[in-house]
Design brief:
The structure is a homodimer of 215-residue chains. Chain A is an alpha/beta fold and 215 residues long. Chain A has helices at residues 28-39, 67-77, 121-128, 146-156, 194-214, and strands at 3-8, 12-14, 19-23, 43-48, 60-63, 83-86, 93-95, 110-117, 134-140, 161-165, 174-181, 186-193. An 8-stranded mixed beta sheet of chain A has the order 5-4-1-6-9-10-11-12, sandwiched between helices. Chain A has a two-stranded antiparallel ribbon with strand order 2-3. In chain A, helix 4 (146-156) links the parallel strand 9 (134-140) and strand 10. The two termini of chain A are 23 Å apart. At the A-B interface, strand 3 and strand 8 of A face strand 3 and strand 8 of B. Strand 3 of chain A pairs antiparallel with strand 3 (19-23) of chain B, so a sheet runs across the interface.
């Protein structure tokens, strides 16, 4: 069976042994997509950051902590997959310096931290993507011209379709997303429980793939 | 029955709608202490940050996200308690400015964030502590002179005993702690599963309280 890669959950970038920068992400959308993909007949490898939610047993699950670890796992898995969906919220900055010991509060009770960008996982996958592979990143946009930003991201990452979602989707059970193709056409606007939206996302991708093969 | 307050889990300090600074903390030690305290005949209110673990049903659980929310909840609950144990890992810094929209990566791919100290929850409880109440903060120390730092914290917070633990204890099921009194005397050195260590911590506190009443 064709295998797909799904990234899920947040990643963490540690400042010292206890403090870290992270992104709000429950892993639930990744889990729902994995279940929907299994139901649609795919095999699934999930690369997941630290989450409290449980993944279906039929999955191959690779657990990671940092964005770099997530990237390395994805680079290893992707060549054996027909496609990848990026439902993770990898932390896109890491501290420039990591302290081996817990940072102590100083007298003036302030702390200035310089962060540098972490690698863009789906942009890296976009570079090694073969003509028979597809890539579907997510874009979480909280401002008005979110669609424009999402399309820019889709091109930067060399993706095929992008799933645009708002901050409402992050932690709850409810999702509201829009699937766009590279021309900016909205293929679907979906809302409902994460399970129902995930099923419709997999359905939309499958329908697009069938259309491409038919062409 | 006498009620005790237990804080548990991490807190989060958001930079924008998705990114946050946090501390590694599973909430398991708080849950184990709560169970041990119930078994010892206490009623328990737990004030907990976002965790994946489950708390026993017999507890009163107050869920919070930020350090300030944890402080407000504790200030409300503590006056009705005989004592408090601080097993939480509250994030001790918050960003000076919080962005309403998701911060975009800039061209040079760096980000400098100024953080300011959040309130010290147990130091605040120490200020309102009555003579018949007791306070047991935790100190997570990763460097060599950890005991010294822990004692300084104990005095700053006006606590009665302090539980010194190392970074090994943070996420796993295993704990290794030392209980110190204000003179620096080690009352107990405990190691084992979090459940077993929690039972021994409650036992040690109870024994100390009995000794005080006997005096």
């Amino acid at each position: 069976m064709p295998r797909i890669l799904i990234t899920a959950g947040p990643t963490r970038e540690y400042l010292d042994p206890v403090r870290y920068l992270s992104n709000a992400s429950s892993g639930k959308m990744g889990a729902a997509l994995a279940k929907a993909a299994l139901n649609a007949g795919f095999e699934v490898t999930i690369v997941s950051g630290p989450v409290g939610c449980h993944y279906p047993q039929e999955l191959r699950v690779i657990r990671v902590t940092t964005t770099d670890e997530m990237l390395q796992a994805c680079l290893q898995v992707f060549p054996d997959c027909v496609g990848a969906i990026g439902a993770a919220a990898p932390c896109d900055f890491r501290p420039k310096a990591v302290s081996v010991e817990k940072i102590k509060k100083t007298g003036d009770d302030t702390m200035t931290v310089e962060f540098v960008a972490t690698p863009d996982i789906f942009a890296e996958l976009g570079k090694i993507k073969q003509p028979n592979q597809w890539l579907v990143p997510f874009a979480l946009e909280t401002c008005e011209n979110g669609k424009e930003h999402a399309l820019e991201k889709l091109r930067q990452k060399n993706g095929d379709w992008i799933i645009l979602n708002g901050p409402k989707t992050i932690l709850g059970g409810y999702a509201e997303v829009e699937i766009l193709d590279r021309t900016g056409t909205t293929l679907a606007t979906l809302s409902g429980t994460k399970e129902s939206v995930a099923t419709q996302i997999i359905g939309t991708i499958n329908a697009e793939l069938r259309m491409q093969y038919a062409e």
